Amino acid sequence: xxxxxxxxxxxxxxxPADTAQVALDLPGNAMLPIPFAVDDAPEVVESAAGALAxxxxxxxxxxKPGEADRYTLHVTPGEGLTLRVQARELGTSKLMAVVAVxxxxxxxxxxxxxxxxxxxxxxxxxxxxxxxxxxxxxxxxDTHALTVTIEDLAQRGGRDYGYRxxxxxxxxxxxxxxxxxxxxxxxxxxxxxPVVVERHGIEGEVRLRVANVPEGLRVEGGTSVxxxxxxxxxxxxxxxxxxxxxxxxxxxxxxxxxxVEAVATLADGSQIVRRAEGPGMMVGVAGATQQGSVxxxxxxxxxxxxxxLPAHLTKSPAATLEVAMIDRKRMEEGDQMxxxxxxxxxxxxxxxxxxxxxxxxxxxxxxxxxxKVDPQDGTSGTFLxxxxxxxxxxxxxxxxxxxxxxxxxxxDIVSRPIAVEVMEVESRSVAKTDSNR
Length: 437
Prior knowledge:
Immunoglobulin-like, 0% helix, mainly beta
């Protein structure tokens, strides 16, 4: 590769499959390593692209304002293709890309990058900005060539507007993105690991798993529930998932990375498995944070560290927390589910909170109400979760958490998850109660 007047050689023979970035050291330079994007597919540069075929990765740049790059793809009628732009996620580009695909007659088959944010009905508190676009298409009959265009949403350009266009066969794909750079699991306790699943053309359930579970670690949860089928053209959609890690008192967690994977089973029985992408590190940056800011500042990350999810064992928690469903009442408008929480404390004088938080992962239109401590047992209490006709029938992971103050320091305690099944709401005039389900 060339860095101005300096050229260096990158040895990629030992790089694992599915690696997105590697770190390159500059000879005789004390600066931090340079992140260098890599791929398993053939790589070409914009000036030498010519007519291409999937799989391929195109390296290009919008060198001046208003520029639109165009590429020709040789295709087979009926095949599926996924086109994904990498720009903002590279950490070195300001490009807010818009990618469009046209057939041989100039008819637009799809476009991404200027649509509303990816559907994420579960995110109501966090301000979000759009990421890099991705589009999946099915090649029409009698079509043997497609034209792909790349431009900036605000018609900008220059040296800071580089990109990578990844073209792959298949119109279904997914990504799993870790929301934390590491996880500390208390000995004899539990910790949660939130994951965002980015889906393109995949509406069914996605399962999260740890591929290299060490001895003494229990992995539970990990269900990213199926989404409501879309009537219009497929587009990028997000869904959450949470893995709960529980460590035995003598578990061996020394900081080695856990490999988190997302698995989707397609209609034909085949599977798509994608390794979760970890940030490596996360350092907040002061700058533009307003919703809608084109150059909004994001935390500094280090994907090139390839740390995945380092896991450490920490000291035993002051308490553990349990949750169980003790009653369910099926109503015409939805379910009412009664849950009990239970604290198991090490110090009987420990002050306990009057409520807990509950997360039914991926469930929309639910409410947690009527949380109250048991008057006969201060270590336990109950709460209700209600659903509506808008809550999608599925099997959900539910876990609870609570915050304790120990020696002036706060400890967040997480329970192991339980499975909660939400069924189709049936119209009825009489409520039905199912206990101990």
